UniProtKB/TrEMBL annotation:
Protein name as it appears in the record: Branched-chain amino acid ABC transporter permease
Transmembrane residue ranges: 6-27, 34-53, 65-87, 99-117, 146-163, 195-217, 223-254, 261-281
Keywords: Amino-acid transport, Cell membrane, Membrane, Transmembrane, Transmembrane helix, Transport
Chief place where the protein resides: membrane
Natural source organism: Agromyces marinus
Cellular compartments annotated: Cell membrane
Signal peptide (from-to): none
Family: Belongs to the binding-protein-dependent transport system permease family. LivHM subfamily.
Pfam families for this protein: BPD_transp_2
Membrane topology note: Multi-pass membrane protein
KW Transmembrane (keyword) present: yes
Amino acid sequence: MDTLILLLVTGLGLGALYFLVASGLSLIYGLMGVLNFAHGAFLTIAAFLGWEVGRRISDGTWTGLVISAVVGILVGATVAVLTEVLIIRRLYERHIEQALVTVGISLAAVALFEGIWGTDPIYTDRPAWLTQTTEILGARIPNDRFLLIACAALVLGGIVLFLRRTRYGLIIRAGVENRNMVTALGIDVRRSFTLVFAIGGAAAGLGGVLASVYYGYVSAHLGSILLIFAFIVTVIGGLGSLTGAAIASVLVAVLQQFANFFLGGTGDLVVVVLLAAVLLIRPRGLMGKAA
């Protein structure tokens, strides 16, 4: 019983991390139809700069972690906005060029990060509480999982409130449903594009800092690794569906943890099989809408 609880909560923590990355991908695709392969670069640079600032101010403390998170959010949002304004904005409706350019940015970013911070992982210090465990029904749960789950829940709640309670949120939701209709009403949906990129970049930036907490290190390939699973989550949940991304994040991560433990470390293979099954049975994803 304690093993099942440990795997479940650990899966929820990993799923929270996947969601922080996938939420931005889902929002960006839902409104703009852009599959942003550079999203992982937003996460990585946010993780590195957040770590650099946090360790210089108060390394291994809650103050340092909070500062790292704030820096990561700001860096992720800023880099995402610059990417949209300088590059993506020129390529709307040109999907092949979008994919090629964002893949190129991703590859170039990894090379840049390796040139600055090296190719080896850099291990990070965390507040003492995050290195400890809490017992739940006999299972010793690493405390950092609770932090990840709480942050993902706050991000999900914040995005939902923004989409439902603000003017720009209503425009974004309407644009996702029918962009042509909204444009015909005289509303320039593209004004919201930059804001959506900023939100997605901010979520990825927070995810980058929390990834360094979960894994205990930062590296040039951190974003690339998480981006793979974020895309899987986005496709399984349904492209453009935030709710689907949340459900799929938990499903994928929990399944991955159980398969790794009970099926000899085959978690990644099982996730790929799940992806293939969803694409064959329900190509639009769990919560995606029919074309």
